[in-house]
Design brief:
The structure holds two protein chains of two kinds. Chain A has one domain (about 1-50, about 70-300). Chain A has 13 helices and two strands, in the order H-H-H-H-H-H-H-H-H-E-E-H-H-H-H. Chain A has helices at about 1-15, 35-50, 55-60, 70-75, 90-115, 120-135, 135-145, 150-165, 185-195, 215-225, 235-250, 255-260, 265-285; strands at about 200-205, 210. In chain A, helix 6 crosses helix 11. Chain A is globular. Chain B is an alpha+beta fold. Chain B has seven helices and five strands, in the order αααααβββββαα. In chain B, a hairpin with a 2-residue loop joins strand 3 and strand 4 (about 145-155). Classes of the chains: A mainly alpha, B alpha+beta. Chains A and B meet through helix 2, helix 3, helix 6, helix 12 and helix 13 of A and helix 4, helix 5, strand 1, strand 2 and strand 3 of B.
């Protein structure tokens, strides 16, 4: 009986590795993106943009299916185009398929059942609770990035939400009066802020899209995420599995439409991963005391050449 | 109260593109909330109404060409036309159910960045009961009308995402093969 129990627990854990769904670790897990910081970045972008040959575009509009497209090649937003090296693509594609199946066959059915049983406000509270526990990672990352106001915000949030938010179940700090927004950052981004590139693309089974730089997050979580300290190994993994099921239950449908919209889902997710992570790092750099002014000259995350 | 909501959703500094977008969102919400269009039988009518709004607001030609860039040259005019049509259907299939699922999410437009003489980026966020999703619309002015040509969801630009996919597919395949993939995608379930 005990063997069965541990097997079942093992399965849940397997199905629920942090951000199992192939794209979420990268794209959507960190939902409440820091609005003010991304704003900074985009404003900076707007500043550098040369005005394009808008006349040509109008001409093109006259014959919509026409030939001339020179203006599409030097579009002002083109400079944002990013790629990541993918030398182990066959392995990655296999892992992508594996994660995709795990999502549809295991994680999603479980999350669906859970969603039917537990009302949304409760699930949001659970999400807040786990998010509150991740305070040390965000706090240390902010400090390492020389984003001291971010670190202060995080400390304030942790104190307020732990005391007045009933141990983190609620998020009063993000309310209108206090407006302390979560500093969604991690150690991988911290390396990115200091100019460390991704290296190459790698899709982990269960964990989803990542890169060698992302290894530091896995290591960091061992040290900075309280759930990792639970004495009994299956309690720790069980808690993490529960966290994943809970967060998945709040996002059922997102991954599905991403896949449905993609012509080549593997390439689509890879690109979404790199686009998202580059802009996050850029936003973090814009907040860092060390790089605030240098941001324009040294683009973070030097894009890898297309293979 | 109604007036309040209106004021909140369109900030005072809003320019023409934001106003156009806001109108569109309101038109979409009106269709989705229409009490006369309830039940599964009304889905087709709703879809048709949404399609009209979509065509009015979304510059699919601009969108398609930006995703294909140089590859556009490899397509014959007939193929180009088919590509634009198929692409639209793929998007509709992927996102229609999500839109029809609408349940009181709030749309807040908070910033307008000028990208060039005739391009702006309107920044907004969608607020649901459990999260906020940043959503930026890149718009272009053609014939005195602002139309959306790219949507950036959570920092991911759709145009760029598709461009990477098409570049890779067309590096090893002909336009006809890409069209075939799209046709299959539109047909399945």
């Amino acid at each position: 009986m005990k063997t069965y129990l541990s097997l079942i627990i093992g399965c849940i854990i397997l199905s629920a590795g942090n951000a199992l769904s192939p794209c979420w670790g990268a794209v959507t897990m960190q939902t409440p993106a820091d609005v003010s910081s991304s704003r900074t970045v985009l404003t900076a972008d707007a500043g550098q943009i040369p005005s394009p040959s808008s006349k040509q575009q109008e001409n093109a509009a006259d014959d919509p299916y026409g030939d001339e497209n020179s203006d599409y090649d030097n579009d002002p937003l083109e400079e944002e185009s990013v790629t990541i090296a993918d030398p182990i693509e066959p392995f990655n594609r296999a892992m992508h398929t594996f994660n995709d199946k795990m999502y549809f066959w295991m994680l999603k059915p479980v999350a669906r059942g859970y969603k039917a049983a537990v009302p949304e406000p409760a699930r949001v509270s659970v999400k807040n609770f786990f998010s509150n526990l991740k305070f040390p990672v965000r706090f240390v990352s902010c400090l390492l990035q020389a984003d001291f106001s971010g670190a202060a915000t995080e400390t304030g949030r942790f104190t307020i939400n732990t005391i007045w938010g009933i141990g983190g179940l609620m998020d009063p700090a993000a309310g209108k009066e206090l407006d302390l927004r979560k500093q969604d950052t991690d150690l991988g981004q911290t390396l990115g802020v200091y100019g460390v590139g991704h290296g190459f693309y790698i899709v982990w089974p269960f964990f989803g899209p990542s890169s060698p730089r992302g290894l530091v997050d896995i290591a960091g979580n061992q040290v900075l995420y309280p759930l990792s300290f639970l004495n009994i190994w299956y309690a720790s993994l069980g808690a993490k599995a529960f966290e994943t099921i809970n967060s998945t239950s709040l996002r059922i449908g997102d991954y599905e439409s991403l896949i449905a919209a993609a012509i080549d889902p593997y390439v689509s997710i890879r690109n979404a991963y790199i686009q998202y992570s580059m802009k996050e790092v850029k936003a973090r750099r814009a907040r860092s005391l060390l790089f605030k002014n240098a941001e324009a000259d040294h683009p973070a995350d030097v894009p890898q050449p297309e293979q | 109260m109604l007036l309040m909501i209106f004021i909140l959703s369109v900030p005072a500094y809003a320019g023409a593109p934001t106003v156009a977008l806001d109108n569109t969102v309101n038109r979409v919400i009106d269709v989705l909330r229409d009490p006369k269009l309830k039940g599964p039988s009304a889905k087709a009518i709703k879809t048709e109404k949404l399609r009209v709004i979509y065509k009015d607001m979304f510059d699919e030609m601009e969108f398609s060409r930006r995703t294909l860039t140089r590859n556009w040259q490899k397509f014959t005019p007939a193929q180009r036309k088919e590509f634009v049509d198929l692409f639209e259907k793929v998007l509709e299939k992927a996102y229609l159910d999500k839109i029809l699922d609408y349940s009181n999410e709030k749309f807040v437009f908070y910033k307008e960045n000028v990208l060039s003489d005739n391009q702006v980026e309107v920044q907004s966020k969608v607020i649901t009961s459990s999260k906020e999703i940043p959503m930026f619309y890149r718009m272009i002015l053609k014939n005195d009308k602002w139309k959306v040509y790219d949507v950036v969801v959570e920092n991911v630009s759709l145009v760029q995402n598709y461009r990477t996919q098409f570049n890779e597919i067309l590096a090893g395949n002909t336009p006809e093969q890409l069209l075939e993939t799209l046709r299959k995608k539109v047909k399945t379930h």
